[in-house]
Amino acid sequence: MRAMVYRGPYKIRVEEKDIPPIEHPNDAIVRVTSAAICGSDLHLYHGMMPDTRVGMTFGHEFVGVVHEVGPSVENLQVGDRVMVPFNIFCGSCYFCARGLYSNCHNVNPNATAVGGIYGYSHTCGGYDGGQAEFVRVPFADVGPVKIPHWMDEEDAVMLTDALPTGYFGAQLGDIHEGDTVVVFGAGPVGLYAAKSSWLMGAGRVIVIDHLEYRLAKAREFAHAETYNFAEHDDIVVEMKKATDHLGADVVIDAVGAEADGNLTQHITAAKLKLQGGSPVALNWAIDSVRKGGTVSVMGAYGPMFSAVKFGDAMNKGLTLRMNQCPVKRQWPRLFEHIQNGYLKPSDIITHRIPLEHIAEGYHIFSAKLDNCIKPIITPSAS
Amino acid sequence: MQENGSNKMPYTAEKPQPRETAEELRARIPGWGADLDPKDRPSFPREQPGIKTGAHWDFPERQEEKSPRERSIEHRFLTPVFGTSAPPSGLSGVMRKYAYKYSEGRAAHWLILLAADRVNAWESHLLSLGTRHPDNPITETGVLSEFKSGGMSSRRGQKRADTKHQWLDPIIVAGPWLAVGAGAVLAVKALASRKTPR
Fold first, then answer.
1. Low-confidence ranges of chain A (pLDDT < 50)
2. Who's near A263: CB < 8 A, 6+ residues apart?
3. Does B144 sit within 8 Å of A244, measured CB to CB?
4. Which of B54, B154, B172, B56 is nearest to A46 (CA)?
């Protein structure tokens, strides 16, 4: 099969690999029909995530058709069209049994602090991902779901990570009616978080980024007020001014490890790898939220330490909430919202790229060329 | 924008005045308030004991360990299911196995893994030179998309914060190779000058 393969920082190529075998009785092998590149894939691509090995295939957002099932699989059959949450989870450990699917303890031998994620380094379990023609899907009776007949394929891809994560981020903000919500980052997760904030009754939604085309999308897609932090000397002061000097009730960090806005933080984290991530957006969130407010962190950070302003967070009495999204818990409600016309996930897709050209797709997404917001990858076998 | 009464917020007890009423927001934004009740949201409460997951086992069957699998020492045992991508090999493999002697709480664990990642890339680049499919930095970095997808126009006239450091990327990719190449040239020259009779 053809598969994207990591060759080192900033370098990937498409190689011939064996179709993955069934390794466990509850495995399925899925023929991928659509995959996406996630903003968090860029952390791997840039060499930021420890234990990212040459030869790994990335990709944790994908849908496809069941090609083969293991002997204990009961809920899926060959030929089923399935959407696969980015979390790999067993459904039976202490954490899964309580709904914390992203914190599964049975799927990641390499680390206890994070569950399993497709194609996301050995720190997240060492599983190959879905930017390929075929992918191994463990616990086929627990994770994947048949795509409803009414759902578009591209909406289904967005439901495997980006949309549930944005929606989850808004939930962790504990938004109450009339709250002012600030979202740092107008990428896919930020756009979905902003849109979801309205569903939860926000009175104002403000989105901050430095890419004007993404801010335009935030205004159009998410009905948000927008600020370009590169046009302001101090975005925290601007947020105070915008909120009558109170601060926002809720701030969502939808940026994560490669945040711009402070050159020292960015270079020490993203270029020199001396921090787990550049905490610029997180620190702005801590400083922009009102005392007693809530900061919801959806941005992905590496496992190393980062220079986060915990003193301010403590002194302001903040509630900090965060986790990798337990995707499957969000699906029933999100399916309703899509059917009701409240959400059209695929509206943010800007690029559709054949797998054979994925190296250019990564560069376009990474360098923010051609107004790229969300690239979809189409494997040739699909 | 409506000013607040005394305009002394938040130095007084008053709350900010809403800019729009619920009715106005509902009319303007599709689905506004559909998840208004914080207690009726999918991730509330955070932990939901007894949630149906589809698992039909108490503890999963164990995946066969075909070769020794590195694991965090914070785990009691090897997890029943694990990824099989890219087993450790070469010098980077030795480093990775050594890193797993330290817990996730130790900086040494992560710093050795990061160093192993860099070594792994170098090993792979060098090994690829002996194959029919050597690494090609032009195609593998996708840099040709700069010409096809508006590399200039995407940056020109924009107030983009990332343009302050994007010039570092080619140095990160090509710099070590150029440095090694230059070093090799200097070494060859030095050797040649030693052998040349005076």
1. none
2. B164, B165
3. no
4. B172
**Could you identify the residue written with the tokens 């496992």?**
A303
Q: Do A74 and B56 touch (CB under 8 A)?
A: yes
Q: What is the dihedral of CA A347, A353, A354, A357, to 10 degrees?
A: -160
Q: Looking up tokens 């990824």, which residue turns up? A: B83
- Amino acid at the residue A350: T
Query: What pLDDT is stored for residue B1 in this prediction?
Result: 46
Can you tell me the distance from the alpha carbon of A47 to that of A49, in angstroms, rounded to the nearest whole number?
6
Contact status, residue A284 vs residue A184, Cβ threshold 8 Å: yes
Q: Over the stretch B168-196, which tens digit does the pLDDT of each residue have?
A: 888 888 887 888 888 889 999 999 988 76
Least CB–CB distance from A112: residue in B104, B143, B169: B104
Contact A31, A67 (CB under 8 A): yes
d(CA A117, CA A43): 14
Cα–Cα distance for residue pair A92/B187, rounded to 1 Å: 60
Secondary structure (3-state) at A312: helix
**CA of A162 to nearest chain B CA: how many angstroms apart?**
16
CA distance B68 to B88: 10
Nearest to A200 by CA among A24, A337, A331: A337
- Provide the 3-class DSSP secondary structure of residue A122: helix
User: What pLDDT score was predicted for residue B158?
Assistant: 87
The span from the CA of A17 to the CA of A358, in Å, is 16
**pLDDT at residue B6, rounded to an integer:** 55
| CA A156/CA A101 separation, integer angstroms | 19
Low-confidence ranges of chain B (pLDDT < 50): 1-5
A263 chain-B contacts, CB cut-off 8 A: 164-165
A253-307 pLDDT, tens digit each: 999 999 999 999 999 999 999 999 999 999 999 999 999 999 999 999 999 999 9
What's this model's pTM, rounded to 2 decimal places? 0.96
Joined together, the tokens standing for residue A301 give 């950070």
> Does A200 contact B36 at a Cβ distance shorter than 8 Å?
yes
Q: Cβ contact (<8 Å) for A368 and B161?
A: no
What tokens were used for A192? 């979905």
- Residues A290, A204: Cα–Cα separation, whole Å: 14
Alpha carbons B158 and B104: distance in angstroms, whole number: 41
| Angle at alpha carbon of residue A123, lines to B57 and B98, rounded to 5° | 110
Tokens 């997404």, residue located: A365
Cis ω for the linkage preceding B45 (within 30 of 0) = yes
Helix ranges (H only) for B40-167 are 90-99, 107-128, 137-141, 145-148
- DSSP 8-state assignment for residue A179: -
Q: What ipTM does the predicted assembly reach?
A: 0.96
Could you tell me if A301 and A280 are in contact, meaning their C-beta atoms sit under 8 angstroms apart? no
Contact B84, B65 (CB under 8 A): no
The pLDDT of residue B198 is: 60
Strand A134-137 to strand A225-228: parallel, antiparallel, or no bridges (unpaired)?
unpaired
CA closest to B138 among chain A residues: A11
